[in-house]
Specification:
39% helix; Sulfotransferase_dom; disordered N terminus; disulfide bond; 13% strand; alpha/beta; five-stranded parallel beta sheet; NST/OST; Rossmann fold
Amino acid sequence: MAYVLIFSRHFPFSHRLRGTSICLLSLFISFLCYCALFPGAAVMQKSGDPTPSCLQADGVKLRLQKSLSCLHPLDAQRSSAAGEAPQPQTDQRRPAAAAALTARDNTPSPPMSHLKFGNKKLPNAIIVGVKKGGTRAVLEFIRIHPDVRAAGTETHFFDRNYDRGLEWYRGLMPRTLESQITMEKTPSYFVTKETPHRISAMSQETKLIVVVRDPVTRAISDYTQTLSKTPDLPSFQDLAFKNQSLGIVDMSWNAIRIGLYALHLENWLRYFPLAQIHFVSGERLITDPAGELARVQDFLGLKRIVTDKHFYFNRTKGFPCLKKPESSGSPRCLGKSKGRTHVQIDRDAIEQLRDFYRPYNVKFYEMVGHDFRWE
């Protein structure tokens, strides 16, 4: 009204304004002044927005309305749907509201077990041999270690599937964290001529593990396994000897050829230094699994976590088994094919094979700097 009177004195009207016109003009001018002084006071809420505004103008001051819907709109909607009565609102200041909002932010998130962690990496270490030496046991024992992840099946990438490429090979690996080691096992690698060069081409830093065993015992075990799948197989002596009476061994038979460890190792040493190859004794793996696994962990640069507390000797199988894990109701032993009774072989044939392997064994001992005492 004051603005209208001042305006009337400076700009006299030809006729007097009616009371109604003066009131309207006064309200309009007051609204313009209010908007100029408090441009952010009015909090506009879009029509149709189900979330109520939490900031309201109260004179010149703004206050935060403490209500269930402001602190957690979704919870408020659920409460309304369930028919719960809203709690009485109280006028609380910013500190209390801020504390409530902080508590909401600290609420535990839903489980995220469905997410996949880690990446698939090419293996840092490979168990390359030998067949019927104890490779499956070494893999099952070492994968107890929390810093080891291993492919469950033999990939045969470097001997049978090399043309598929490294990305195919990587896809077979488990997901691992940066601190974990990726491993795989394919025993035929050790006796495949092309494998050392191919693994070296992938990474010259790859660590190699070879599980070796008395070559005569290994050959008999190999034959026993094949016989269980092929009952009409010729006798062991017929396959092992070209002429048994003369003691001429058939080196072309795979069961015999695998045991020529020195010859195969020469091929590997063309691409890898001896320090990058660790040899596990298949015999000591049975009598002292914890000791052998301690050396494997040292070779891989792992803390010694797998110890004798993880093993017990299964007298029925004649082989060590893993003690019952906390999450399982029974101990973990290798499959039925492990620890099976060997076929009985003529004593003379065994002695002939020992004579045949002796020079190769001695050379192997010299190459690795360790006597496995297979005589």
